[in-house]
Design brief:
- The complex is a heterodimer of chains A (113) and B (114).
- With 113 residues, chain A is mainly beta.
- Chain A contains no helices and eleven strands.
- In chain A, 0% of the residues lie in helices and 53% in strands.
- In chain A, the strands form two sheets. In chain A, strands 2, 4, 5, 9, 10 and 11 form a six-stranded mixed beta sheet that branches. Chain A has a five-stranded antiparallel beta sheet with strand order 1-3-8-7-6, with no helix packed on it.
- The radius of gyration of chain A is 14 Å and the shape is globular.
- Chain B is built from no helices and eleven strands.
- By secondary structure, chain B is mainly beta.
- The chains are: A mainly beta (113), B mainly beta (114).
- Chains A and B meet through strand 5 and strand 10 of A and strand 4, strand 5, strand 9 and strand 10 of B.
Chain lengths: 113, 114
């Protein structure tokens, strides 16, 4: 099926690291993305990783990809209250020119001051 | 550069009515995609357009339709509304269709069906 799974909720203290996990389904996925959604807003692209990479770091964000297990994670260092939001992983699949994304179920990150 | 705009932002309709939502992509972008977001089903792909042609369609009934105009603006239409159509409808624009294309999302239209 097309299900991309994420844990529903994560609570951390300000200053700690957050790790949000995602399990995707299609081993032929070419790009994997992390989006952030704040209340009342659309989706903001945080970062992405190409499927031939294992890791990508972008300032406070680190993405790890385990293709064998189809597991993707997003680590946010020094988490701030402004990071409180819903985080979605998404995959784009091979097979023609398309921007279609398959989104995960979303993880609500709550940052306690 | 202005971002993706969606109108209206909020809409209340009753069952059986029809609705049209509008999306204006970022200037110069030629691809528009639509997604439905609900608490139960999450984010689901509706369709995508490029150069006025529908290139891909999600698994939604025929009541959901869309189109794209020559200026790349897009509309989606839902006929014979059902309660389950209540959702946040998001559109995303990107320069074109490719294996990788950053997509920019609008704020969405919140549709409530009573």
């Amino acid at each position: 099926g097309e299900d991309v799974e994420q844990s529903l909720f994560l609570s951390v203290r300000e200053g700690d690291s957050s790790v949000i996990n995602c399990t995707y389904t299609d081993s032929s996925s070419t790009y994997l993305y992390w989006y952030k959604q704040e209340p009342g807003a659309g989706l903001q692209l945080l970062t992405y990783i190409f499927s031939n990479m294992d890791m990508k770091q972008d300032q406070r964000l680190t993405v790890l990809l385990n293709k064998k297990d189809k597991h993707l994670s997003l680590r946010i260092a020094d988490t701030q209250t402004g990071d409180s939001a819903i985080y979605f992983c998404a995959e784009s699949r091979h097979g023609g020119a398309t921007n279609k994304l398959i989104f995960g179920t979303g993880t609500l990150l709550a940052v306690q001051p | 550069k202005a971002g993706v705009t969606q109108t209206p932002r909020y809409l209340i309709k009753t069952r059986g009515q029809q609705v049209t939502l509008s999306c204006s992509p970022i200037s110069g972008h030629r691809s528009v995609s639509w997604y439905q977001q609900t608490p139960g089903q999450g984010l689901q792909f509706l369709f995508e357009y490029f150069s006025e042609t529908q290139r891909n369609k999600g698994n939604f009934p025929g009541r959901f339709s869309g189109r794209q105009f020559s200026n790349s603006r897009s509309e989606m239409n839902v006929s014979t509304l059902e309660l389950g159509d209540s959702a946040l409808y998001l559109c995303a624009s990107s320069p074109g269709l490719a294996v990788y294309n950053e997509q920019f999302f609008g704020p969405g239209t919140r549709l409530t069906v009573l």
